[in-house]
Amino acid sequence: MKILIEREPLMASIQNVMKAISSKPTIPILSGIKLEANQQEVTLTGSNSDITIESIIPSEEDGVVNIHEIVPGSVVIQAKFLPEIIRKLPENQVELSVDDDMNVLIKSGHAEFKLNGQDTEEYPQLPVLQTDNSFHLQIDLLKMLIRQTNFAVSVSETRPILTGVHLKLENEQLELVATDSHRLASRKINMTDTDGLTFNNVVIPGKSLSELNKILDDTQEPIQISVTDNQILFRTKHLYFLSRLLDGNYPETSRLIPNQSKTVVNVNSKDLIESIDRASLLAKDNRNNIVKLVTQGQNILQITSHSPEIGYVEETLETNAIEGEELKISFNAKYMIDALKAIGTDQVSINFTGAMRPFIMQPDEDDEPILQLITPVRTY
Amino acid sequence: MTSWTELKQSQPVAVKMLNNSITRQRIAHAYLFHGPPGTGKQEASLLFAKRYFCEELHDTSAESCNACPTCKRIESGNHPDLHWIEPEGQSIKKEQIEYLQKEFTYTGLESNKKVYVVREAEKMTINAANRLLKFLEEPSRETVAILITEHISQMLDTIVSRCQRIQFHTLSNQKLYEQLLNQGLPESTANMFASMKLDVQQSLELNEDDWFAEARKIVIQLMDKVMNPSEDGYLYLHQMYLKHFQGREQLDFGLDLLLIWFQDLVSLHLDKNESIVLTDQMDRLEQFHYVVSLSEAKTLIYEILNTKRKLAQNVHPTLAMEYLILQLQR
């Protein structure tokens, strides 16, 4: 294999795949970057076995020539030194060649590096994903979906399946659900071009999704999503992101969501976030970060927090409307703030069904089917 | 060892059980391979994993092809769905089992099949063992656990009862001895390795090692010192012995060598000349057996075993060795 390549795109690609490479790999070969060249492009792969990132450098794009010369072939190179080597090379063009004994020669200007490579046969074989099992989203929409649900995944390993976000596509509707059994975030969007594709019980690890969120730029370009038995692939033009899925059955969550309510509060979400944030100042040291919310007459909410060693805080907040029964309820302030931020609209309506039942929050105008559920905390 | 057929020569029962479970597609979710060192437990687990993942299967045979990329990667330790757990230092820690636990909540990387092999499984801490128990109890589909141990009695009963036990029998010394001779080892060395139950691979490596040749010499000199009342074994211990045998494993090895000496003394007392290992050191043995009586030799063997136990229990190595030498000194 031999390539003559521009340094800039190579560097960018290396930096992309480095994000997947762990400093403590589970198997030795994963400490390397896989380099694969065919006539049209060069593909770099990095993996930590949970996520795999592939970055593609086309030989020519929009009239800009990236790769001047390609002799097809493949090699695995130690990832520890490659980024520094490429960054510090003197010239803008890099010549990279591999002989039959997997010795890698990197040449640029008068500098020459000889590295020991490994056979790509040793590298994990990634599943070839069929494109007919896939659908498209816009990148910025996908990023928003991740932001709105991923915060609610469980961090404890007691129920591993809850550390992921559940993905379901049915009747042209895509649904994402995340829950840690104290709160739940759910988001639905309508899809148009799914070609009758349906799947259920696809659970993507929360860590993979936050990694994906970091890697993707906020653009309007489409991203293709394909699902197989054990992997999910997110594919943009030059970047493939593969993640393993979580094994097991995701619990049925639709039953948890109450469909009637006894008290409905409609409130400006920014004001509510701020006042809960203030109230939680005193509660933060407390184990559960609990604030208490009480409805009063004339559309007034009272928000209080009390911690015996520190002190007491009380604040009243004017709402747009309070309908239904009077209510006293306590909940975790962090959950509430997270949920309100995820909804992100000006006005939000909160539906309570009694002090001991979970309550749900939804944006006031119902064009975005997003739903946040929080279970209250029992206080006396 | 590259095939079941080869392994079958030394382990007919174990291999037959495993082969039958493979060919009849009745693979258990957990196996416990137990037996003394050097009996091919590791090879068996490797062969098993190869057959389990191999891409070019023949349903009727338990052999793997050994040529496909999967088999090659298992051989080189690069298969992503085969997980090896080994003691880190003295024990297998909770975190290592937690890693496994996390790994098994994920789907496989290449397929949904997964195998994990726990080497020296008796070294799991109580915490680790209890965690492992949790997923031995609730095996996920297509996951096989192989636990390897030399001391089955040190394993938790709850773990043992959840695994299919496969016993690997001791190779007879004679057989091992012949194997080693075939590999071109000198008679005296082959005899010593056979009695220490090292497998062929380990023996060949040690035979090439200068450290071992030196170790053997130092142990002989130590014997000379402690068996001679006018010499001081205690000084020799500090001047030579402890400098050469450093770290727990090497000290343990030294004790094994010492043990052979005293076993031979017992054999000599009982006129069982055929079971003497150090046939090249007959002069010394003859001489020593006048110094040490039969019952003394037995007591000293007990002391050496006791020292081995102390080392395993984290007693300060220098102190343990000093104590032993004071006991040995005539």
Which structural class should the secondary elements of chain B be placed in? alpha/beta
Task: Count up the helices of chain A.
Answer: 6
Oligomeric status of the shown chains?
A: heterodimer
**Strand arrangement, largest sheet of chain A?**
7-1-9-10-11-8-2-3-4-19-18-17-12
Under CATH, the topology of the largest domain in chain B is which? Rossmann fold
| CATH class division of the largest domain in chain B | Alpha Beta
Contiguous helical run count of chain B:
16
Distance between the termini of chain A: 72 Å
Number of strands of chain B: 5
| Proportion of strand residues of chain B | 5-15%
Q: Could you describe the largest sheet of chain B, including whether it forms a barrel?
A: 5 strands, parallel
Layout of strands and helices, then pairs:
The complex is a heterodimer of chains A (380) and B (330).
Chain A: E1 2-6, H1 7-18, E2 32-37, E3 41-47, E4 51-58, E5 60-61, E6 64-65, E7 67-71, E8 73-78, H2 82-87, E9 93-98, E10 103-108, E11 111-118, E12 134-138, H3 139-149, E13 164-170, E14 173-179, E15 183-190, E16 199-205, H4 206-215, E17 222-227, E18 231-235, E19 239-244, E20 263-268, H5 269-283, E21 290-296, E22 300-307, E23 311-318, E24 321-324, E25 328-332, H6 333-343, E26 347-352, E27 359-363, E28 370-374
Antiparallel strand pairs in A: 1-7, 1-9, 2-3, 2-8, 3-4, 4-19, 5-6, 8-11, 9-10, 10-11, 12-17, 13-14, 13-16, 14-15, 15-28, 17-18, 18-19, 20-24, 20-26, 21-22, 21-25, 22-23, 26-27, 27-28
Helix pairs in contact in A: 5-6
Chain B: H1 4-10, H2 12-23, E1 30-34, H3 41-53, H4 69-76, E2 82-85, H5 94-105, E3 114-118, H6 126-137, E4 143-149, H7 157-160, E5 164-167, H8 173-182, H9 187-196, H10 200-208, H11 210-227, H12 233-244, H13 247-269, H14 282-291, H15 294-312, H16 317-328
